[in-house]
Amino acid sequence: MEIKxxxxxxxxxxxxxxxxxxxxxxxAVSGDIGTAKxxxxxxxxxxxxxxxxxxxxxxxxxxxxEQVCLSASSLGLDLANLExxxxxxxxxxxxxxIKHMITEGGGQFETLAGQMKAQRLAFDSASSFxxxxxxxxxxxxxxxxxxxxxxxxxxxxxxxxxxxxxxxxAIAKMADSLTCLYHFRDRxxxxxxxxxxxxxxxxxxxxxxxxxxxxxxxxxxxxxxxxIE
Length: 229
Ligand SMILES: Nc1ncnc2c1ncn2[C@@H]1O[C@H](COP(=O)(O)OP(=O)(O)O)[C@@H](O)[C@H]1O
Ligand SMILES: [Mg+2]
Prior knowledge:
Layout lengths: L4 E2 L14 E2 L3 E6 L5 H16 L3 E5 L4 H10 L4 H6 L3 E5 L2 H10 L2 H10 L3 E5 L2 H4 L5 H18 L2 E7 L6 H6 L2 E10 L2 E11 L8 E7 L2 E9 L4
Parallel strand pairs: 3-7, 3-8, 4-5, 4-6, 6-7
Antiparallel strand pairs: 1-2, 8-9, 9-10, 10-11
């Protein structure tokens, strides 16, 4: 069976993983505060809308719609316009609403995704509702229900995760791919790096590679290893 791939919109990333995310896969992007998880998710949705004509939904918990649009515009992404044209919907939600959606079934979100015929989804961050579950066993069950819902919609998803949340490990384990974003210091200079930890069905680059945030997005260099010199 041929595996279909979709471009991620992250410069240099698709070459690391045989051409991009597997279509219909669920992809975890984990990192600490400020490691560019939100920017990754935004770039993924905007590229889908602009280059692939794939509609997308960004479910956001920590940020208001205006803040999301502001972050996007700093990368030259016109999210507000894409919203106007119906290509992207930004959906601010409370973690409790999503917890309810997972435990009780799709609800409003599922209806919107169906009406829009969305093909890309981003939850930023999935940790904000995973943290609401009382223990790891409940978190595992919730992750299973959440994944079933996304798979039913048939979308390709990016779920950002806070790397220090133990409940979110259930999502990282179940996801089709896991990419870790992090900071490191090279003689006092803070640098950024990413690592594809796993990607099912893909011979991916296993190295820890530096990336930069430029005016046009995130750019990873396959030849620049994250070495402290
Ligand atoms: N346009 C930009 N150019 C350069 N760096 C940026 C730009 N926008 C954001 N950043 C950097 O990215 C960081 C935030 O990225 P963000 O995706 O919000 O992180 P996270 O979601 O992981 O907390 C900022 O603190 C800043 O260092
Ligand atoms: Mg963020």
